[in-house]
Amino acid sequence: MKIIWSPLAVEQARDIASYIGMDKPGIAGQWIDAIFDSVARLTDFPNSGRVVPEIKRNNIREIVQENYRVIYKVEETRILVLQVKS
What is residue 12's predicted lDDT score, i.e. its pLDDT? Predict the structure, then answer.
């Protein structure tokens, strides 16, 4: 499966990393690497994230990484990363 990041998700991840980097510059890079690594694993296991509770649609799922949620949509041939939020 192919992973596609929405412009919003990329912007949100960048903003969160910038915020983390204000106090802990080294941690910000580690955080962004961990987010991208978690999402990359979805190519093999697209349904491994939990269904987003407030949406309750089987194809809208999330990965929780520390205090942040990566919300994504599973489609037939791709995974669309929709948002990264706290």
Answer: 97
In a 3-state reduction of DSSP, which class is residue 51?
Answer: strand
CA 20 to mean position of chain CA atoms: 16
Which domain covers residue 64, as residue numbers?
2-85
Q: Identify whether the C-beta of residue 86 lies closer than 8 Å to the C-beta of residue 69.
A: yes
Task: Please tell me the distance from the alpha carbon of residue 56 to that of residue 53, in angstroms, as a whole number.
Answer: 5
Q: pTM to 2 decimals? A: 0.92
Split into its structural domains, the chain has a count of 1
Sheet holding 68-74, edge to edge: 2-5, 78-85, 68-74, 60-65, 50-51
